[in-house]
Design goal:
single chain, eight-stranded mixed beta sheet, 10 helices
């Protein structure tokens, strides 16, 4: 008897017929390609994958994939995805976000998604600016970034996503650069396969409102250390990080949240009566 073979997919199998409307040169084009290539390598059909997002340029990705998708409200994508994964643990659940959507209005959900450690993958395209709403500083914007909307800079310490993810209990923590499609693809694939909550920050330049980020291609560099399963060691590495190190930082071994879904259908009438006012 021949052993069963895994279905063969191509990146194009996971792309919808909708043409992306990002600005020319946006890093999110490469992120979308990396995601579809990773899903093809995963070997599950599009109908076994759900892509959830919030609001922002990066959150358009569900429309550009051929998977089940949900375009939620601002900052609430992780809550929606958590409910979906608990109800349908058989699905591969991925969440797409940006630094504004994910770390500002969605910041509290980010903390608790890491803590709960539900088995899903969170990809945040970080361009350190609100691109869709025309260039306001975001939580990860440098304090001295001068713009028309914040002359002289905000003077505020930037949010450090990797530190927060690790401290809050994420089971997989990594950073990549959108321009390195091979590395992004490999890291996303490993993040999906790793049990528990996986967080991948992808530096994705906004060439329209942050043309200085074109230099990221020259300034990003692979981390010289191997991934660790020791959170204390990972924390020391992150705190000395220059923000441009790429690669997998942490692979945890904490057990994912175990959802208990019953196939039994109770007495609906009795349930309605119990909640009757």
């Amino acid at each position: 008897m021949n052993a069963p073979t895994c279905p063969s997919f191509k990146a194009g199998d996971f792309k919808s017929g909708i043409t992306p409307i990002w600005c020319p040169g946006c890093g999110d084009y490469h992120v979308l390609l990396s995601i579809t290539k990773a899903l093809a390598a995963l070997g599950r059909p599009p109908e076994d994958v759900a892509v959830v997002s919030g609001i922002g340029c990066s959150s358009r990705i569900p429309a550009y994939t051929n998977c089940y998708g949900f375009h939620g409200v601002h900052g609430r994508s992780l809550a929606l995805a958590a409910g979906l994964k608990v109800a349908r643990p058989d699905l591969t659940v991925m969440v797409m976000s940006g630094d504004g959507d994910g770390f500002s209005i969605g910041g509290n959900h980010f903390l608790h998604a890491c803590r709960r450690n539900i088995d899903m993958t969170y990809i945040v395209m970080d361009n350190r600016v609100y691109g869709m709403t025309k260039g306001q500083p975001s939580p990860t914007t440098e304090p001295d970034w001068d713009s028309a909307l914040s002359p002289g800079g905000t003077g505020l310490s930037p949010f450090h996503p990797l530190v927060i993810a690790l401290a809050s209990g994420a089971n997989f923590v990594a950073r990549e650069f959108s321009g390195d499609i091979k590395a992004c693809t490999n890291t996303i694939l490993e993040a999906i396969r790793h049990p528990g909550f996986s967080f991948v920050e992808i530096l994705s330049p906004c060439v329209t409102f942050r043309p200085d980020e074109k230099e990221w291609k020259q300034t990003v560099h692979k981390a010289i250390v191997e991934p660790t399963d020791d959170p204390a060691r990972a924390a020391r590495r992150i705190m000395t990080d220059d923000g441009m190190n790429t690669g997998i930082l942490y692979r945890g071994n904490r057990k994912p949240y175990a959802a208990h879904v019953s196939d039994e259908v109770g007495d609906i009438k009795a349930l309605e009566e119990a909640f009757a006012l």
